[in-house]
Amino acid sequence: MRKIVFHLMMVIAFLSLSQSATAQLPAVTLKTMDGQAIKTDTLSNNGKPFIIDFFATWCKPCNRELDAISEVYADWQEETGVKIFAVSVDQAQNIQKVKPLVNNHGWEYDVLLDPNSDFRKALGAQMIPFVVVCDGKGNIVYRHNGYTDGAEEELIEKVRELIKE
Description:
Elements: H1 2-20, E1 23-24, E2 29-32, E3 37-39, E4 50-55, H2 60-80, E5 83-88, H3 98-105, E6 110-113, H4 118-122, E7 130-134, E8 139-145, H5 152-164
Parallel strand pairs: 4-5, 5-6
Antiparallel strand pairs: 1-8, 2-3, 2-6, 4-7, 7-8
């Protein structure tokens, strides 16, 4: 019986460690709104944390989240230096809607296009909005699905924790 309990405790310890372990960004080639190719495993922010926020033009919660962040983004940047990459998962036939949406909302994010959801899938995201927080080395330290009003505060708290380290 002791042996079973010991093995069970070891499995639980391993799982809890693996849940908190950081992961590197997968290497997927995306494009900017201007058509420039970007490899996702090279995304960075000069050694400071960054956020990757997956959205679609038709996704109301995504747009609410990016609007809420937009209202405080300048303050976040001043305080922490954080950068946001907004990644559209709109399919190829709707890509032309992304730039007008970004401009209409006045979003100051670096916008990338993931029309086949290759990057989203490589990160294991099932739904959007989906947000990833990365440390200054590009390690994934936090993931979040969905959006409720005020959830953006959790993101900036994660970033604040990273800059204190």
